[in-house]
């Protein structure tokens, strides 16, 4: 089953991905002078930063947890500032809520980085 946003993928997007694959430059790191390295991630980061009117943009991949973590760090809330209450109570409640919405084995595999993100049912 296609995920959300699949309707936005057209020939232009497919051509961009194929260009990266053919160049074999899958990393965001490379020399600007190398014609095979398109620096696509860096260019997108710069374009997003310009649109947002900020100095830097950062491309992340994943289901959103990386973005949330980086956002917290960006506003100065690092792991040392996460209260015991947040870790012990709020996080455990969130995970318990997730466990009620999906298969617990799939959720655990995902949390351990050993499986795909589980399909979640509605909040109960």
Please explain how this structure is put together.
- The chain has 124 residues and is mostly helical.
- The protein has two domains: 1-59, no CATH class; 78-124, no CATH class.
- Helix content is 48%, strand content 0%.
- The protein is built from five helices and no strands.
- The protein has helices spanning 11-23, 40-52, 65-74, 84-99, 104-111.
- The longest helix has 16 residues, at 84-99.
- It is extended, with a radius of gyration of 19 Å.
- The protein starts with 10 loop residues before the first helix and ends in a 13-residue tail after the last helix.
Structure keywords:
mainly alpha
Describe the structure in brief:
Helix content is 48%, strand content 0%. With 124 residues, it is an all-alpha fold.
Low-confidence stretches: none
User: Got a strand count?
Assistant: 0
**Radius of gyration from CA coordinates:** 19 Å
Distance between the termini: 24 Å
Oligomer: single chain
Main sheet, how many strands, which sense, barrel? none
**SSE run:** HHHHH
- Percentage of residues assigned to helices: 40-55%
Mean pLDDT figure: 75
How do the strands and helices of this protein lay out in sequence?
Elements: H1 11-23, H2 40-52, H3 65-74, H4 84-99, H5 104-111
